[in-house]
Amino acid sequence: MRLSNATLCLVSFIVFFLLQRPAFAAKKSFVVYLGEHSHGLESASVDLDTVTESHYEFLGSFLGSDDAREAIFYCYTRHINGFAADLEEEVAAKIARHPKVVSIFVNKGRKLHTTRSWEFLGLEQNGVVSSNSIWNKARYGEDTIIGNLDTGVWPESKSFSDDGYGPIPSKWKGICQNDQDAGFHCNRKLIGARYFNKGYAAIVGKLNSSFDTPRDKEGHGTHTLSTAGGNLVANASVFGFGKGTAKGGSPRARVAAYKICWPPVGGNECFDADILAAFDVAIQDGVDVLSVSIGGDPTPFFNDSVAIGSFHAIKHGIVVVCSAGNSGPADGTVSNIAPWQITVGASTMDREFPSIVVLGNNMHYKGQSLSVKVLPNKLFPLISAADTKAANASIQNASLCQAGAIDPKKATGKILVCLRGQNARVDKGQQAALAGAVGMVLANDILTGNEILADAHVLPASHINYTDGLAVFTYINLTMNPTAYISPATTQIGTKPAPFMAAFSSKGPNTITPDIIKPDITAPGVSVIAAYTEAEGPTNEDFDKRRVQFNSVSGTSMSCPHVSGIVGLLKTLYPKWSPAAIKSAIMTTATTFDNLKEPIINASNMKAGPFSYGAGHIQPNLAMDPGLVYDLAATDYLNFLCTLGYNETLISTFSQNSYKCPKPISLANFNYPSITIPNLVGSITLTRIVKNVGSPGTYRAQVQRPIGISVCVEPKKLQFKKVGEEKTFSVTLKVKKAHAVKEYVYGQLIWSDHVHHVRSPIVVKAV
């Protein structure tokens, strides 16, 4: 067929037009942060509307009015000033240069800090870390309001029953956002719930109505919120294991859920735009504590939604507690590193769920499990999963018990030994069961060392440590017909040593500001039993059709709300204390020793240090009476930013107040409850201020010197005559050249009146 001349001309024109027009510029979602608002907590709706219009006008100056209204999907109008919008990168670059803008950053994703999906108290029964006498004194956190930024909440859980509760506190301004989920109900315990998903939708596309609910369909949010503030529930257990009375750290607190995390996309569940929206609203709602069990890679503060939201929260007296992350045991992996946050690592408690692996040579190895499936009391053939390799699978995939890698002809009727790593621990057991195995021994690799976790496996299984795993593999390799038996799991209390650091717990040094130790503290985060969603099984795997009211989960996500609950108690006891004073009380009363009175170790049986546990393992009873505290106000944090090189104009916009950097100023003098000098040349003298929050008394300095460093404290004695009195002291650190060590070394400073022992870690690196 021949084309006419007119048709050829039309085709030529279209081709020419397509070649000449500029390429389509892809859009991304950004957060534009403009600092703080000047209006107060009681701002009227008209004020909020005015702020919204100002955001449209601001972006309209770059895009035009109509395009600006279409691009913006969040306006932060209450305390955080800014908006989130879909923008071309070229436009974002222009906005970044505007003098009103503090920062602009991509709407990044963050992760939940639980190990369950990739591998796997409420201060609960038996493994309690706080005595009833202290809880009673603090009225169990009565009427403190704890907010939780997470995956939502399962409101029907008994942990959120409001039996015996009085009216909702008058200061509460929040709502129960159930307009699209009529079956979701709040009460006098669970006093509020909201959801935030526009930032998530900006990444994945339009969402259906099933996303319009604060209901927890994943389990993480219910678990963390009940750990922080869950009510007392008798006879709580996971399939009968760990049976006792579950209770959150502040069991009489009121709680509120802010759902910001959704099904993973690119490995991330919680997005910056939603996080800031939740912080902005939670501050307005009237929470006293915010528990945040999420995080990402360490990021400069003004590009970090959690750091920004936390700063605005602490300005209103709200304590923000964050998880350190699950990227350990590598150094420099800790997240949530702002000094105004309490950052929590994860360690074990003195409760285990032992399941014994008995070999044919009568050797016994203690693992852990929550499996309700039981083997007949006899020996079964034992085989390394690598030796069950399917024809088309790699040895590595078979050894990890990955899907499709196990040959049923080789596995049927046997106990498989699977290596930990890559796929979920419970999935390994599922793959073994699908291949006909009767049981599984899960063996750690060298990195995970002694960290063994109790999971609700679908077949008889036991998780053993690295050393024992080597012994089992050696037995298999040297025995003609290796056999084994896995004993039923039980609950064991009072195990030793405890605590020790979890291998997954992220570690310092702080890669953004090395002068601040992070994490600040460690708390129970391994095999923690707390309330759970009934929308998922205990393993969160598609194959798991079981449902539980309580579940055992591990991660810094679990240790974080332990501290949040204790903060709730402190807020009840001392409502006028600042967030910094509460952090100081928690840090300076922590312990670095286990229940054998030996230094806390890590999962590799090595002595742990401040980069693992910060000030140490939390001791709630002592935190209630710290004696002295290192206090900080919002202005001190602005001075901190000044020492990092942020200019006065930017800091003024950030704080909505005129600001001048004091001269001179030194980061070493920042009044933190720990002392860190990452690049000590010669010597340095720094100052600290302590405030008396106890009875009158005289405190004397005791110093444990870091190797190769001399430490001099002046004065060596501080006398306090009244509550609220402050005293200043100096610490001089000097490198002993003959004994200098070119790596981080650790010591401690203790102020003691023989009743209180106010301890601060000292971390120094000579250069």
From TrEMBL:
Signal peptide start and end residues: 1-25
UniProt feature coiled coil, ranges: none
Boundaries of every Peptidase S8/S53 domain copy: 141-602
Keyword Flavoprotein: no
One GO BP annotation of this record: proteolysis
UniProt keyword annotation of Glycoprotein present: yes
Highest taxon, organism lineage: Eukaryota
Ranges for domain PA: 397-471
Alphabetic keyword roster: Glycoprotein, Hydrolase, Protease, Serine protease, Signal
Family statement drawn from the similarity comment of this UniProt entry: Belongs to the peptidase S8 family.
Stated name of the protein: Subtilisin-like protease SBT5.3 isoform X1
